[in-house]
Amino acid sequence: MKILIGKVVKPQGVKGELKVYPADTNLDIYKNIKEVYIDNSSEPTKIKHMSLRQGFIYLTLQGLSDRTNAELYRNKNLYVNQEDITLNENTYYTENLIGLDVVDKTNNFIGTIVDIESYGAADVITILEEDKREYKIPFLTSIVVMVKNDCIVVDKQKYNEVKLCE
Length: 166
Hints:
The longest helix is centred in the last third of the chain and has 7 residues, at 156-162. A hairpin with a 2-residue loop joins strand 4 (45-53) and strand 5 (56-61). By secondary structure, the protein is mainly beta. The protein is elongated. It is built from 3 helices and 13 strands; from the N terminus they run E-E-E-E-E-H-E-H-E-E-E-E-E-E-H-E. The model has no long low-confidence stretch (mean pLDDT 88).
């Protein structure tokens, strides 16, 4: 699966470097990237040089050596293969959480995750319960006890205290 890493803001300098606005504020996850996909390209482009500074990604791509050609990349989205990014512990791709079952600590089924929205302070999970009603809860460690491969475990009492009906 391809993951958006950022959008090219503009060429930087005269040697073809690109300034990229990152999709994530944690720039460390981009350290080991060796190639990118440009917009809907099916073939990756190798990265000659990359640096992370002042909240931006700066990179030079193979075959790109001047500002004129770099200008063609303005406003293009850059993607990488999901396995090329190393996530920190307790960090997850939204796509991997949607569809997971939600259970309590004693493994009683509560519902299924149908959507996740990002609001900055905390992500908000939408859960479809067995009664076919959707509820929203914040994705906080005080509520979400654990994320496993096949489900999310929540503290049932805290879950019931904070859930909001859609």
